[in-house]
Automatic annotation (TrEMBL):
Residue ranges crossing the lipid bilayer per the database entry: none
A Gene Ontology cellular-component term: extracellular space
Domain of life the protein comes from: Eukaryota
Activity regulation (record text): Inhibited by L-aspartic acid.
Entry annotated with the keyword Hydrolase: yes
Compartments where found: Lysosome
EC number(s) given by UniProt: 3.2.1.31
Name of the protein in question: Beta-glucuronidase
Residue span, Glycoside hydrolase family 2 catalytic domain: 333-627
SUPFAM superfamilies, per database record: (Trans)glycosidases, beta-Galactosidase/glucuronidase domain, Galactose-binding domain-like
Native source species: Drosophila busckii
Limits of the Glycoside hydrolase family 2 immunoglobulin-like beta-sandwich domain: 218-328
Length: 659
């Protein structure tokens, strides 16, 4: 009987159907204009934790009907930030289930007239329930992605308002990412444990900014652009589709139109157009300045400003929205990836949004520092491992010419099932909707280390990859795979194969003599299996800053430096085969993980410490990344790249020509 049930379950699990998923609307990044105002609700909120064994009590008891402090004693909590590391309490750090936030705010009387008001969250991990003045306003599931709702009719104008947020961090088998919740006996009774296989701390809370913003009654709800360049890159094309929302849109179909003007960096108008009745069209940009990656061109990250003015049939100005855009074109084959017709070799990192105290909370100072370090080290790309990063960081990447492999929050995906598939697709839909206008985004990563040898992985990834393509055909699709190439069932649905492997670390620990050939052999094997471009998307070694051991020994700075060098040798052999198109170190900086005896305060594979200072290997990596940039794109070298050693003639060189 038991066997029969098991077989039945297995059969049910095998049938995965490709169902529709809900479509995102709106969510343009909130910016001010002649017709829009933006107010931040960031700051110190009131915070309370539910009892772990009673996570829905607050809903049943209506905690949202009054100030939270009326239900429970509250503590101050910064927004944006993860709540886990703010206090000194282990119980809050490791809390599983719901927590509550609230705060008061005023809305100006002027906002009640002739406009609409929207509430927007940059991200809440993992699930959010929001009330305004006790009325349910919006619910959203999926960390690291924005959501918004109209609140025009539930606000008090010229008066005080209260916003209440319940956030649930529980991860189960049908969330993205997956986790497991179990009840385990402890010394005093039982406790609820959240477990997950992924290797970063499940930070939670209101992670990114909260905004209120106004729009006119009829407004620009969405803009989708795609860009192209003529073969010689001298002329650029911007295809646009504008969606509008509002009563004027419904009444006067076809009568509304948009005027678009494109400005260059100097503020000079370089193109303009009036849309067709469907609010779509094309701008042609003569003497285009293409968007180039960092070090690939003397002027990387060139951004234009697209000004969109929405007009009523009688020419009245309804709404103005400005969007930064870059002109570039991508193409790929089974052996190449090009940008603006030039082959690209990726050199960069897997990263995390992670830092002391604030966890995964948006921190502008940290973000600016990280981009300075990326430029200092000469990287041209990173993967948003293992979830979408802040919109502010996407804007930074655009401006700095840093290419992004944009990853959805699916990590260590397993036990493929129908509910999971729908959420996985929804995470990609939300991600692509949010990020499709960024020139920095050059590839979609649909998963990290999915268990692609399992039954069902084949159908599952066929659906996920094809769904991604149906949303955006202008960028290739990849996934970072770690199962052995022979067992993988997903690669054939990808455009580019990325693989993660830890030679001399997880396998053959300490054996630096077992790296180079293995990396070469594995890359060749992936290429032979799928005949697609290959990237090594993770390699590295945990390294305790300040630990020096000569000869190199695991965990020491010497070992990280040596292991990098062994990989570089493999990459150089592979680069001769044109299909090997990139190397990504794991990780940019040390980051926090769950507790484990393999982790000393977290994962220490950072090239930078968690405080964003270089380890010894950073200097080596910097010399390599600049050497690659110089060889491939003839960039000039930073003056401080080589330290003076000795004036001993031609045998010891110490300047850029040494490369
Ligand atoms: C991996 C994972 C990454 C881990 C890393 C490690 O393969 O993709 O999330 O942090 O290995 O250091 O174990």
């Amino acid at each position: 009987m038991v066997t029969a049930l098991y077989v039945l379950n297995l059969t049910l699990a095998l049938i995965i159907v490709n169902k529709e998923v809900p479509t995102s609307r709106g969510m343009l990044y909130p910016t001010e204009s002649e017709t829009r105002e933006v107010r931040s609700l960031d700051g110190i909120w009131n915070f309370v934790r539910s009892d772990q064994n009673n996570p829905t009590q607050g809903i049943r008891d209506g905690w949202f009907n009054a100030d939270l402090s009326k239900s429970r004693p509250t503590i101050p909590m910064p927004v944006p930030a993860s709540y886990n590391d703010i206090t000194t309490e282990q119980s809050l750090r490791d809390h599983v289930g719901t927590v509550w936030y609230d705060r008061k705010f005023f809305v100006p009387r002027s906002w009640s007239q002739n406009q609409r008001v929207w509430l927007r969250f940059g991200s809440v991990h993992y699930e959010a329930f929001v009330w305004i003045n006790g009325q349910s306003a919006v619910k959203h599931e999926m960390g690291h992605l924005p959501f918004e709702t109209e609140v025009t009719h539930i606000l008090n104008y010229g008066a005080e308002n209260r916003i209440t947020v319940m956030c649930d961090n529980a991860l189960i088998q049908t969330t993205v990412p997956q986790g497991k919740i179990s009840e385990v006996a402890n010394d005093g009774g039982v406790t609820i444990i959240q477990s997950y296989t992924f290797d970063f701390f499940n930070y939670a809370g209101i992670h990114r900014s909260v905004h209120l913003y106004t729009t006119p009654k009829t407004f620009i709800e969405d803009v989708e652009i795609s860009t192209n360049l003529a073969d010689d890159n001298s002329v650029g094309y911007v295809d646009y589709v504008i969606s509008i929302n509002g009563s004027a849109a419904n009444e006067a179909d076809n009568a509304i139109y948009a005027k678009l003007q494109l400005y260059n960096r100097e503020g000079v108008q370089v193109a303009n157009a009036t849309s067709d009745a469907k609010l779509s069209g094309r701008l042609k940009v003569e003497q285009a300045k293409p968007w180039w990656p960092y070090l690939m061109h003397p002027e990387p990250g060139y951004m234009y400003e697209l000004e969109i003015k929405l007009h009523a049939a009688n020419a009245e100005l309804l709404d103005v929205y400005r969007l930064s855009i870059g002109l570039r074109t991508l193409s790929w084959t089974n052996a190449t990836f090009t940008i603006n017709g030039k082959p690209v070799y990726f050199r960069g990192f897997g990263r995390h949004e992670d830092s002391d105290i604030r966890g995964k909370g948006l921190d502008n100072a940290l973000m600016a520092r990280d981009f300075n370090l990326i430029q200092w080290i000469g990287a041209n790309a990173y993967r948003t491992s293992h979830y979408p990063y802040s919109e502010e960081s996407m804007q930074f990447a655009d401006k700095h010419g840093i290419m992004i492999i944009d990853e959805c929050p699916s990590v260590d995906t397993e036990n493929f099932n129908q509910a999971l598939l729908s959420k996985h697709k929804s995470s990609l839909e939300q991600l692509i909707h949010r990020d499709r206008n960024h020139p920095s985004v050059v590839m979609w990563s649909i998963a990290n280390e999915p268990r692609t040898s399992q039954t069902n992985a084949d159908t599952y990834f066929q659906f996920v990859a094809n769904f991604t393509r149906s949303l955006d055909r202008t960028r290739p699709v990849t996934a970072a795979i770690a199962v052995p190439h022979a067992d993988d069932k997903a690669g054939r649905y990808l455009d580019i194969i990325s693989f993660n492997r830890y030679n001399a670390w997880y396998s053959n620990t300490g054996r630096l003599d077992m790296v180079t050939q293995r990396v070469i052999d594995e890359a060749i094997a992936w290429n032979q299996k799928y005949d697609k471009p290959i990237i090594m998307s993770e390699y590295g070694a945990d390294t305790l800053e300040g630990l020096h051991l000569q000869p190199a020994f695991v965990w020491s700075e010497e070992f990280q430096t040596e292991i990098f060098a062994r990989h570089f040798k493999a990459f150089d052999a592979l680069r001769r085969k044109k299909w090997f198109i990139g190397e990504f170190v794991w990780n940019f900086a040390d980051f926090k993980t769950g507790q484990s005896y393999t982790r000393v305060g977290g994962n220490k594979k950072g090239v930078f410490t968690r405080a964003r200072q270089p380890k010894a290997a950073a200097h080596l990596l910097r010399r390599r990344y600049f050497a690659l940039a110089r060889e491939l794109d003839q960039c000039s070298m930073p003056e401080d790249l080589f330290t003076y050693i000795a004036d001993v003639g031609a045998s010891v060189k110490h300047d850029a020509t040494d490369l």
